[in-house]
Each structure stands twice: as C-alpha cells, then as structure tokens.
Amino acid sequence: xxxxxxxxxxxxxxxxxxxxxxxxxxxxxxxxxxxxxxxxxxxxxxxxxxxxxxxxxxxxxxxxxxxxxxxxxxxxxxxxxxxxxxxxxxxxxxxxxxxxxxxxxxxxxxxxxxxxxxxxxxxxxxxxxxxxxxxxxxxxxxxxxxxxxxxxxxxxxxxxxxxxxxxxxxxxxxxxxxxxxxxxxxxxxxxxxxxxxxxxxxxxxxxxxxxxxxxxxxxxxxxxxxxxxxxxxxxxxxxxxxxxxxxxxxxxxxxxxxxxxxxxxxxxxxxxxxxxxxxxxxxxxxxxxxxxxxxxxxxxxxxxxxxxxxxxxxxxxxxxxxxxxxxxxxxxxxxxxxxxxxxxxxxxxxxxxxxx
Length: 356
Ligand code: IPM
Ligand code: MN
What we know:
The chain is of the alpha/beta class. It contains twelve helices and 14 strands. It has helices spanning 16-33, 47-53, 59-66, 90-101, 124-127, 163-178, 194-207, 220-229, 241-252, 292-305, 309-324, 343-354, and strands at residues 3-12, 36-42, 70-75, 105-111, 131-137, 149-150, 155-156, 183-188, 214-219, 236-239, 262-266, 271-275, 327-328, 339-340. A ten-stranded mixed sheet has the order 2-1-3-12-11-4-5-10-8-9, sandwiched between helices. The protein has a two-stranded antiparallel sheet with strand order 6-7. Helix 1 (16-33) packs across helix 10 (292-305).
C-alpha cells in the first residue's frame, strides 16, 4: 500500500491562502508522480481565527496539529487586527503555536539562485554561490521572557535563556554543520548582555563535542554588516530568537526577494513549515504574490518531516527550471524575465515540471 501522510494546513491571512493553494497544487503533483498519499486538514490561526472564533490560537488548532505528521503554514497578520491587545493579536497566535508544538529550532536557508543573480541589490560577485543556514532559536529569548509589561511610564521585556535551551539549539546547529562545511558562526551581543555571555559559554562547551566543526563568534551588529559585505564567509549562523528574526530578513535580500525563502521549524515532535515572509496585506487577493517561498517550505517538509527526499528534489529542481526558463512573479519581474506570471500560474508551472 502507498504511504499516507496527514498534513495540517494553516492558510492564515493576507496572501497566506493564495500561496498555500499553490504549495498544495505542487504537493499533489509530486505525490501522484511518486505514489504517496497526502491528506490535508485545514486549521485556523491568526486573524482569520480571531474573526471566526474570537481568539488567534483556537484550542482545536492546538489539538489538531498534534495529530498531524507535519504542518504547512502560510502567513498571519494584517492591519485589521493591529489595534487588538497584544495577547489577542494574530502574532500571539503564531508564537503560542510554536511554543505549544515545541518547535525550538527554526532553520532558514539563504541561498542565491544563479538565475536571479541580478535580482539582488548586491553585486553578483558578492552573492554568487551564497549558501547560508540560519539556525534561529524560536521558542525562547526576549519573545517569551518573563517578566514583561506595558505600563504608563515605562515598558519592559526580558531576554532569558536557560542552559537547556541553548544546549538544544546549539546541538541542532552543530549537527547541521556536520552535514555542511563544518563552520558555525554564533551570533550574540556578549559585549553588552549577560544572556549573550551565557549563550557563548554554553555554545563553547558544546563545541568540545564537535572537534571537526570550526566555531567562531560574532556580535550581532557586526554580523548584520558582514552579511551584506561578504555573505560567503558564512556557513551556519547560530543565533537567538530576535537576532535570528532580524538577520534572516537581511539574509533573504541576498537572494533578491523575501518571497523566495522557506523555513522549517522543528523540535520536539511535529514540525512547522512556513515561508519567512509575512502576510503582505498590501498585495493580498491580487494574485501577484510569489509562491516560491511556500513551495520551497513544502519541499523542506517532504525532506525533513516525511523523509520523501525524491519528491523534495523534484520540487527544488522544478523551481530552478522555472527560473531558468525565465518565469518570474512581479517581485522579481525586472530580472532576466521571459514572462511575468501570476501566483497561480507559477504554481501551475512548478507542479507541471515537478510531476515529470
Ligand atoms: C517571522 C515573523 C514572526 C516572528 C512574527 C510574525 C511573530 O516575523 O516568522 O520571522 O517574529 O518570529
Ligand atoms: Mn520575521
């Protein structure tokens, strides 16, 4: 009998539904081509969940994801919900879901497609061949630290990391480095923050167990600069939640568009796969969003969560071929395009190439 997987699908808000539809189109195409079954179960999160249930993370979603083999997620948020109290905002739903799922390791690969070498604002010589894996800690740090409060005359958040939290994310980074060029740059602000000094010490301890991996440390301000100056110096970047959030956005522009980069959030059990970009409410519903980041996230899901590497390879190759053939969504439309296509046309093209 064919293998069968249950995929939780969270479309979310803004362009979320459009890009997820294209990823599902592509998943269906490769699963038919390679003889496995995918069953989808839709769940609510973020603004659409607020509209339907009153909360950004319904209990049904918390329970639902636990019964899936993996979860594919689009994007959440939008101006409609921006004035809500913090704990009722769409973003709180996503943070709560990450915490509930225990997805502490967020892998954000930043690679540059040769076909889009001119799409970056940086010189081709600086970015050609860039291949970075940002390993971002996702369920700790200042996003979750207590105490936190908004008062009339002041406000505060707390950046906390426990030894266990740093150890487990460092282990993920070292294991990934072993599969790559065996170089880790751990990014922190140890010249100012105790929490970063602590982070550095734990990472150093972990390095003893991986003698083949070359470990360096960099302050986050310098890392932001080095990412733009000479991104090829990086192999694996290991960093905390907020620094990873910022640096991965910066790294995405090496590739030419934030609409290209996928991510995988893994940890204790079921993984969450999502593009690194947001819900782009300004272009929602126009059919012009770039679905490639979400389609790549679906490929990461097949590879890392389901072990369907052949299907993942088919998708990755289909994306390259579509770009080689000159198909571009509007965000990258100015660069060596043969044809500007819509979100759903791009999905059709990738699904077609991936099923051959
Ligand atoms: C991301 C996003 C989220 C984050 C927001 C939407 C909460 O920016 O996934 O990078 O900051 O983690
Ligand atoms: Mn972000």
